[in-house]
Amino acid sequence: MNYNYFSEIVEKANQRKCKISSIVKEWEEEKQEKDIAEIVKLMSEQWQVMKRAVDSGLNNPQISMGGLIGGEGKKIISYMEKNNNNDIYLKSAARALAVAEVSASMGKIVAAPTAGSAGIIPAVMLACIEKYGSSEEEIIDALFTASGLGIVIAKGASISGAEGGCQAECGSAGAMAAAAAAELMGGSPQASSNAAAMVLKNVLGLVCDPVAGLVEVPCAKRNVMGTTLAIVSAEMAVAGVTSVIPLDEVIAAMDSIGKSLPAILRETGKGGLAVTPTGLEIEKRVKGEKKNV
User: N or C: which end of the chain has fewer CB atoms below 10 A?
Assistant: First the structure.
């Protein structure tokens, strides 16, 4: 079996009256030529790495390599505790920042689908555990749903900021997380597709403009954006809100837009926020520090 479009996976899941994750697991079993139990074990290990990255970023924050971020996730948690605030969106924002900070300080993360977007999926999955009571087993299954969509996006467009802008990184991660979350919320395969489409439609054209060429600013806070979009879109889809433009067409549009973006807006650090006065000052400082090392 081979799936080039997410609608094919949805159709197969509908035919079989099963979850998308079940179809993706079978697909992986065939591709990898491994027993499904072994593949599930590997996914479980990835999930443990994701959770440890969240814990590390919140409980032992590190300043990033470029010195631009670090400790923001913990600040949000402290703010919430001080104000007796248990808002799931704010808590998810803290978790997404925490992983982005671990990534930028050379800690261990899971590129999901990239290092620059690594905070989105774990933050959303933890929100589903907390808000919807999802079990560890259900989370691991949902990660297969996310990965299946990631494969389709990589085939039909890109998951690389250098190739398609940040829409391809944080956008793809948000879509993957939304599809997984919709499944965890009890949504249908089509709901997962609608959720992912709604995320991607809201980030079309998002550029990749890392300040000083570092995956720190604005990348970390775009992880928060992707996380929030994913949760809201999943809830909308499960509530019955649909995407007028089908997911596969949205992915094709993302591909076309990515190819239309000028090089300065595709991870070169030569456009957007990277060339603002502050961005240029930071680049000058970072380059000066590197020369002195």
Answer: C
